[in-house]
Amino acid sequence: MKKLILDACCGARMMWFDKQNPLAVYMDCRDAEYTLCDGRRLEVHPDVVADFRQMPFPDGSFRLVVFDPPHLKKLGENAWMAKKYGRLLPTWETDIKAGFDECMRVLENYGVLIFKWNETRVTVKRILEIISAKPLFGHKSGKASKTHWMCFMKLPK
């Protein structure tokens, strides 16, 4: 079965209803297991270990890409929030831009990119300035409506 979907920062696949969806390729920059502060186990076992800034896929490989990059700054490497959600590096602005560009590169024409961002530390307005793209539509969610789901489409040049 052809894999049609890429989750470019899958982490523990927390957003997935089917964490083993046969249509999806799960990618993350780490393959690890952690014990969180409350004693629960967190497992990050992607199909592909790779950096979202430089993906190992040909152009136009997927119909749908999900991009949920780390959104927190100033976390220690061993903080439980860093283990659960990842953390932004000091180069986060160029990293997010490179990741967005890579997501668009691996999308086929008319493919869809779902970009999830939590603006606890960095606003969506700032992210949209960095990626220089305008979403088709989006939705705010979460207790304080700080998580934004945005939809983009790759149009042929």
Secondary structure layout plus pairing:
Layout: E1 5-7, E2 24-28, E3 32-35, E4 41-44, E5 48-49, E6 62-67, H1 80-85, H2 92-106, E7 107-118, H3 124-131, E8 137-141, E9 147-153
Parallel strand pairs: 1-2, 1-6, 2-5, 6-7
Antiparallel strand pairs: 3-4, 7-9, 8-9
Word description of this protein:
- There is one protein chain.
- The protein has 157 residues and is an alpha/beta fold.
- It has one domain (5-153): Vaccinia Virus protein VP39 (Rossmann fold).
- The protein is built from three helices and nine strands.
- It has helices spanning 80-85, 92-106, 124-131; strands at 5-7, 24-28, 32-35, 41-44, 48-49, 62-67, 107-118, 137-141, 147-153.
- It has a seven-stranded mixed beta sheet with strand order 5-2-1-6-7-9-8. Strands 3-4 form a two-stranded antiparallel sheet.
- The two termini are 29 Å apart.
- The mean pLDDT is 93.
Task: Give short descriptive properties of this protein.
157 residues, alpha/beta, Rossmann fold, seven-stranded mixed β-sheet, 3 helices
